[in-house]
Amino acid sequence: MLIVSRVQSSMAVRSSVLLYWFHVFCTGVFADVWKVTVEPDMQALVSSCVVLPCSFKYPVKEQPSDRIRAIWHMKDNWDDIIFHKDSTKVKDSFRGRTNLIGSLGALNCSLEIDEVKNHDNGPYCFRVELETSKTDKYSFVENCVSIKMIEQASKPELQAEQSVQEGEPAVFTCSVRHTCPSHQPTLTWNHTGKVIMSYKDIGHGNWETQSVLTFSPKKEDDHSAVACTVKHYGNVKGEMTVTHRIFVKEQATLSHILIPVISGLGSALLFGLLCFFIAKKRYRSRPGQFTPQGGQNVITRKSQEDTHSTVLFRCEGTEANTQQLLMYSSATNQDKTPPLVIKY
C-alpha cells in the first residue's frame, strides 16, 4: 500500500512538470504566431489627425487583404468598435473619423484617426479575424494604444547663423514634429529663395517635416527678420510662426581699402601743415636766428634787457594723429619759465 502511494505521488509530480513545460512551449508558439506590434503611448494634436502604427502576424498561411478582417475596439469594452469595414458597427462618435491606411495583406494594420477630439484617449486594441475558419481570430488586448492629447501646437524650430555675409549663400532650416504622416504639415517662408522639403520617420510614431531655405543676402536684408510658418492639417490652434533676425556683413570692395588709407594720409599731412603754420605765426614777431640742433629747431633772439635767450621747439605726432607743439625757453638771465606745450 505504501509503495503504491509513493508511485502515485511520483507520477503526479512528473505530470505537473510535463504540464508546466507544455504550457511554456504552447505559450511561446502562440505568442510568436499571433503577434502585434504597436506604440503603446502616442501623442495627438487636437483637431488634426494621428496615425497609430501597427503590424501583426497570424499562424496560418498568408491571406489576401479581402480575406482578413481588421477591427479596432476599446480595451474595456470590445463592443465599442472605433473601426470596422462595416461602418454601421462603428461607434457613433468615431464613425467617419477612422480609416485603415495599411495593407492587411502586407500585415499592416495602421489606423488613422481624423479630427482628433480631446477625449480620444483610448486605450485602443487591434483585433484580426481570418476567413479561413471561425476560430482564426485574435484580440491583442495585452498590446493596446493610449493617446495623450496636445491642445495647442508649438511653433516650429528654426536654425540659422545670426551673422551672414553679403552675396554668399545663407542656409535656414525650419522643422516641426508631428504624428500625422498621412497629412503632412506645410512650412512656408517670408523670404524668397531655393526651398527643399523633406519628410522623415524618426521612430515611435513620430515624424519630422523639414524645410531648407537658401538665398544670398543683400544690404537691404540687414537687421531683417526671416520667418517660418507651419500649417497643420485641420483646424489647429497655437503659435505657428518662428522668426530669426539676421545681420548682413558688407562685402569688402576696393573703396573699403582706399578710403581709410587716403583718410589717414590726408590727416597726417593736414596736421603737419597745421604744426608748421602755428610755429611760424607764434614767432613771427620775435626776430632771432633759426638754426637746427640735434634734430630740433632752435631760435636765438635778443631780449629787451639785451640778454640772449634760446627758444627750443619741436613738433611731435601722437598715435591719435594729434600734433603737439613743444616749446622750451632757457634764458641766460636764469629765467625759470616752464616749457610751453600746445596740443592740437
UniProtKB/TrEMBL annotation:
The keyword Transmembrane applies. The chain crosses the membrane at residues 257-279. Its main location: membrane. It is a single-pass membrane protein. It is found in: Membrane. One of its GO terms (cellular component) is membrane. Residues 156-243 form the Ig-like domain. This is Sialic acid-binding Ig-like lectin 14 isoform X1. Coiled coil: none annotated. Keywords: Disulfide bond, Membrane, Transmembrane, Transmembrane helix. Pfam families: C2-set_2.
